[in-house]
Design a protein that fits this description.
single chain, three-stranded antiparallel beta sheet, 3 domains, 40% helix
Length: 364
């Protein structure tokens, strides 16, 4: 099917299908996290909300149990941000994203690390972390004793980047603040097996986000320069084109969904990779609306899907202990039926978050 053109609506419906947003799935949360590649987790709660939007009868305890049993971990991942990722994927793909993590480190703290022997820093930090899980503050204090003339945050960031680390629960679980302790990934998960290839990683991405371009894959991972190494594997993929003529790669046999397939209203949480994981995001988000979703300081708002596309943003508010409010801000007028569907889904979400609280839905 090389060269077959896919319409925007086909790409939209196919993305929603692979993201489990056309219909809630009955698969287990571990399989869902793996299918999504990883779930951005700058804040602890959004991945839980993301799985609620995708899975039938998902309970918060399901994901927390996976984290406590070390089957899902919270770790520095794509684009140097915290993600939830399965144990298997962490050990397979962490070596492949390492260059992106290092590039992020140099972007944030390159000048503060000039002249520092990073191999020596790693050698100093590993034994400290091996003794017991440590907060980044504890790691910083330890390294400042050795490098007193350096910026503590830069030392901290270097250790987090250069040493495979994972957060230890309860850090990163529902309702727990972002302060957490880190453990060596090898201690927490066991020795790494054979690392996957770049083509394996690309296939893994396409399972949840394809068909997509190599540049889309680079945006998702934060990696660069992948065109040439992936070109050697071109024959192992199906290649389509979008309506603008861009090449879109896919796993052979991957489902392509009809653009007329019905798409229910969904509330997708902050920082969800659904709206982040492509360079060309028009399959889910209109260019004119990007600045309404992507704010300053790298904030990404929760989004409301209507007919498969982002039609507004939403947030939770707790004005009192006994009241939970869902505030929806549509980008344009909603039809009466769509407005009712948004209200119904918002109420279901609020009752799932706090069944004891009174629920209020405000649609701007």
């Amino acid at each position: 099917m090389t060269g077959t053109t896919l319409t925007l609506r086909q790409l939209n419906r196919t993305l929603l299908h692979r993201q489990m947003l056309l219909a809630r799935q009955t698969i287990d949360p571990y399989s869902a996290v793996r299918r999504l590649g990883a779930m951005q987790s700058q804040l602890p709660n959004p991945p839980y909300l993301g799985l609620w939007a995708r899975l039938d009868d998902f309970q918060r305890a399901d994901l927390t149990a996976l984290m406590e049993s070390r089957r899902v971990v919270r770790a520095p991942w794509n684009r140097s941000t915290l993600h939830l990722v399965t144990d298997e994927d962490h050990q397979k793909f962490r070596p492949l994203i390492a260059p992106a993590l290092v590039r992020g480190m140099k972007s944030f703290h390159g000048r503060n690390l000039d002249g520092l022997d990073l191999d020596a820093l790693v050698s100093e930090a590993i034994p400290h972390l091996a003794e017991a899980p440590r907060s980044m503050g504890e790691v910083k204090d330890h390294l400042l004793k050795i490098y007193p003339d350096r910026m503590g945050e830069a030392l901290n960031y270097a250790a987090r980047t250069l040493i495979p680390l994972v957060q230890v629960p309860p850090g990163g679980t529902w309702g727990v603040g972002s302060m957490a302790k880190y453990a060596l990934a090898e201690q927490w998960l066991g020795a790494s097996g054979e690392a996957a290839s770049l083509a394996d990683f690309f296939r893994h991405y396409l399972t949840g986000y394809g068909p997509a371009s190599v540049m889309d894959f680079q945006v998702w991972t934060g990696l660069t320069g992948l065109q040439k190494p992936l070109a050697a594997h071109r024959d192992a993929f199906t290649v389509y084109r979008d309506e603008g003529g861009r090449e879109l790669w896919d796993v052979p046999g991957g489902d392509i969904i009809n653009g007329d397939a019905p798409a229910p209203v969904r509330l997708v949480p902050e920082y969800d990779n659904l709206v982040i994981a492509h360079q060309d995001r028009r399959r889910i988000l209109a260019d004119d609306d990007r600045k309404k979703v992507f704010l300053t300081a790298a904030r990404v708002l929760g989004t409301v899907l209507v007919d498969g596309f982002v039609a507004g943003v939403w947030k939770l508010e707790k004005p009192t202990k006994k009241l939970l409010r869902v505030v929806v801000e549509p980008f344009g007028a909603l039809s009466p039926s769509d407005r009712q569907a948004v209200a119904d889904e918002s109420e279901r979400l609020a009752r799932w978050v706090d069944e004891a609280a009174a629920c209020e839905v405000v649609i701007g």
